[in-house]
Amino acid sequence: MAEVLVYVDHVDGAVRKPTLELLTLARRLGEPVAVALGNGAADTAATLAEHGAVKVLTHDAAEYAEYLVVPKVDALQAAYEAVSPAAVLVPSSADGKEIAARLALRIGSGIITDAVDLEAGDEGPVATQSVFAASFTTKSRVVKGTPVITVKPNSAAVEAAPAAGTVEALSVTFSDQATGTKITGRTPRESTGRPELTEAAIVVSGGRGVNGAENFAIIEALADQLGAAVGASRAAVDAGWYPHTNQVGQTGKSVSPQLYIANGISGAIQHRAGMQTSKTIVAVNKDEEAPIFELVDYGVVGDLFDVVPQLTEEIKARKG
Amino acid sequence: MSLRIVVTVKYVPDATGDRHFADDLTVDRDDVDGLLSELDEYAVEQALQIKENADDAEVTVLTVGPEDAKDALRKALSMGADKAVHVEDDDLHGTDAIGTSLVLAKAIEKAGYDLVISGMASTDGTMGVVPALVAERLGVPQVTLLSEVSVEDGTVTGRRDGDAASEQLQAQLPAVVSVTDQSGEARYPSFKGIMAAKKKPVESWDLSDLDIEAEEVGLDGAFTKVESVTERPARTAGTIVKDEGEGGKQLAEFLAAQKFI
């Protein structure tokens, strides 16, 4: 059976959920061989094996933390040459897309980014993408070289599929380009204790109608009752009320949760691009003409400062 | 020695228009108004700010696209760029990201550069990989997705805000930079800028000027193929209620019925 290379996104050995989703997709195409790099690489093996990795290629070097992107491209290329896979799958993060693109160029392959589904086809993997602010769905194929495809979070279920997960050391020689861009400082994000925006089952967002950074407390209170992530529209982020890392939309994150609750968000195209594939959409907005109401399964025309706290209290009461 | 800055920009269909696909499954550029990709305005802005802080610098704006793409160049020139290069060739129709990076890299080399600045992604294709591909082809550092950028004494520094951490980056010129929409509001062209732009030079190059064969680009030269396109069905109309004092409770009832609570 053909082998499929899966690039592992992990933090000090803790594998992030989108990588486990990639293993589910990789198993549709062949036998997953995982590539884990940097500090804690070998610690990823047990989790990856549980989810279907037949082999885990690992390598650690200071370069991965000290220089941007290129050392990881060198390593993924080494893995590609060692394995000769049928496809290479990479999570659609900022680093992931750049790593995948540079690898594709080096190995003479095409690249598809931000796939939301992947199936085996007669002529190689077929990738589904959601385009033009999610108003169209396309199916595409890489037609030259070994397909290199990046996949968005939440594109497949995480499935247990125990496999050998044999750890093998990968041999990597860094290129001249590897040390071109130095990472001179790193400030980790402070944990909010809430789920990752792109991985959350429920997202509660606030927009212009929230009208101030301090008022986001009522959005957060609702999110915490639901165990949800907090999102923000571009208007709220540009106004400085909430961090850019929480922005949902064309220039922020795109999310596809089971439930999306939009509060005080008009629903401009920039925002819709990031959330309109959500399964269930709910909105609270004062303006009954707001375009967000065209998307909703349930909408409340009203003042979010009345409706949202009442909703939060009601959920609390129902939980008993 | 003058600092040579090349800004790569894309002419895209207006995101607020009714965007769709042509019969050959490429982006339809005829039925929707085009414009300079909003995300590239941030690249032009940062280039102009770097120029303003340098002793001597020149900003060239570069695009690859059809005849109408000149509009995007004009906009960048009216914002303050010094000159423009338009790579235009019928054989470019349908070129993918790998092919686009080839054309851009060849044109950047021909123009001469110390610093390339791009936007974080186009607003139509939204891949966000072209700056990394151009850096790979040019063999120079990529300093990408910056929310803050500065250039001093032949060194570019900037801040890359990732999901897990915010990173400070540093590289020697020549380099390829991309900037996000957090890098600073783009200026509006002034009336004076618009008038001045009409007199600024716009060079036109075709594939033969760049020693690129037609087979290397275009729909036939593409490394990827779109096999089908389906319009997303409109969402079925939902229930809308007016808050008469019980809106929060009604919403809770809906969420409970859907088993979210």
TrEMBL record, chain A:
<comment type="subunit">
    <text>Heterodimer of an alpha and a beta subunit.</text>
</comment>
<dbReference type="InterPro" id="IPR029035">
    <property type="entry name" value="DHS-like_NAD/FAD-binding_dom"/>
</dbReference>
<feature type="domain" description="Electron transfer flavoprotein alpha/beta-subunit N-terminal">
    <location>
        <begin position="4"/>
        <end position="183"/>
    </location>
</feature>
<dbReference type="InterPro" id="IPR014731">
    <property type="entry name" value="ETF_asu_C"/>
</dbReference>
<dbReference type="InterPro" id="IPR033947">
    <property type="entry name" value="ETF_alpha_N"/>
</dbReference>
<keyword id="KW-0285">Flavoprotein</keyword>
<keyword id="KW-0249">Electron transport</keyword>
<dbReference type="InterPro" id="IPR018206">
    <property type="entry name" value="ETF_asu_C_CS"/>
</dbReference>
<dbReference type="InterPro" id="IPR014729">
    <property type="entry name" value="Rossmann-like_a/b/a_fold"/>
</dbReference>
<keyword id="KW-0274">FAD</keyword>
<comment type="function">
    <text>The electron transfer flavoprotein serves as a specific electron acceptor for other dehydrogenases. It transfers the electrons to the main respiratory chain via ETF-ubiquinone oxidoreductase (ETF dehydrogenase).</text>
</comment>
<dbReference type="InterPro" id="IPR001308">
    <property type="entry name" value="ETF_a/FixB"/>
</dbReference>
<comment type="similarity">
    <text>Belongs to the ETF alpha-subunit/FixB family.</text>
</comment>
<keyword id="KW-0813">Transport</keyword>
<dbReference type="Pfam" id="PF00766">
    <property type="entry name" value="ETF_alpha"/>
</dbReference>
<protein>
    <submittedName>
        <fullName>Electron transfer flavoprotein subunit alpha/FixB family protein</fullName>
    </submittedName>
</protein>
<dbReference type="InterPro" id="IPR014730">
    <property type="entry name" value="ETF_a/b_N"/>
</dbReference>
<dbReference type="Pfam" id="PF01012">
    <property type="entry name" value="ETF"/>
</dbReference>
From TrEMBL, chain B:
<dbReference type="InterPro" id="IPR014729">
    <property type="entry name" value="Rossmann-like_a/b/a_fold"/>
</dbReference>
<comment type="subunit">
    <text>Heterodimer of an alpha and a beta subunit.</text>
</comment>
<dbReference type="InterPro" id="IPR014730">
    <property type="entry name" value="ETF_a/b_N"/>
</dbReference>
<keyword id="KW-0813">Transport</keyword>
<feature type="domain" description="Electron transfer flavoprotein alpha/beta-subunit N-terminal">
    <location>
        <begin position="24"/>
        <end position="214"/>
    </location>
</feature>
<comment type="similarity">
    <text>Belongs to the ETF beta-subunit/FixA family.</text>
</comment>
<dbReference type="Pfam" id="PF01012">
    <property type="entry name" value="ETF"/>
</dbReference>
<keyword id="KW-0249">Electron transport</keyword>
<protein>
    <recommendedName>
        <fullName>Electron transfer flavoprotein subunit beta</fullName>
    </recommendedName>
</protein>
<dbReference type="InterPro" id="IPR012255">
    <property type="entry name" value="ETF_b"/>
</dbReference>
<comment type="function">
    <text>The electron transfer flavoprotein serves as a specific electron acceptor for other dehydrogenases. It transfers the electrons to the main respiratory chain via ETF-ubiquinone oxidoreductase (ETF dehydrogenase).</text>
</comment>
<dbReference type="InterPro" id="IPR033948">
    <property type="entry name" value="ETF_beta_N"/>
</dbReference>
